[in-house]
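Researcher: I've been going back and forth with a colleague about how Neuroglobin might be arranged in three dimensions. Neither of us has a model we trust, so I'd like an independent prediction. The organism is Diceros bicornis minor, in case that matters for your notes. Sequence below.
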Amino acid sequence: MERPEPELIRESWRAVSRSPLEHGTVLFARLFDLEPNLLPLFQYNCRQFSSPEDCLSSPEFLDHIRKVMLVIDAAVTNVEDLSSLEEYLAGLGRKHRAVGVKLSSFSTVGESLLYMLEKCLGPAFTPAMRAAWSQLYGAVVQAMSQGWDGE
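Model: Here is an independent structure prediction for Neuroglobin. You can compare it with whatever you and your colleague have in mind.
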């Protein structure tokens, strides 16, 4: 697999990582727009959210957003050596599978990530940057997909 362009990734992530919660919320709001049936997967203390807004403002979910942004941050940091994150990402895949997330939903997460980057960066989000992020995200999902192996 071709390696994504590290500089393009780092440069674009710098702007986003200044306010991870704000941008992570944009990512998940988009995700629920595109795939509303993911909402019931997020339950805390057996309480189901009545709406995406309800979910996006709950402290537990905000904590999940922070964690997701940290995973992306780790991928950006290790963009030149993603294999060092392989075991960690496979474990993350297993955790998601255990709560009923389908591997196919991660392509929607990828679309939502690109949407968030575009919203954050505007015209600065070039086609080359989009391609680099698609590659990086593809590699992350490939590593996470090991958590679904054996199904």
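Researcher: What would you highlight for our discussion?
Model: I'd start with this: Residues 40 and 48 are 6 Å apart (CA to CA). After that, consider the following. The chain has one domain: 5-148.
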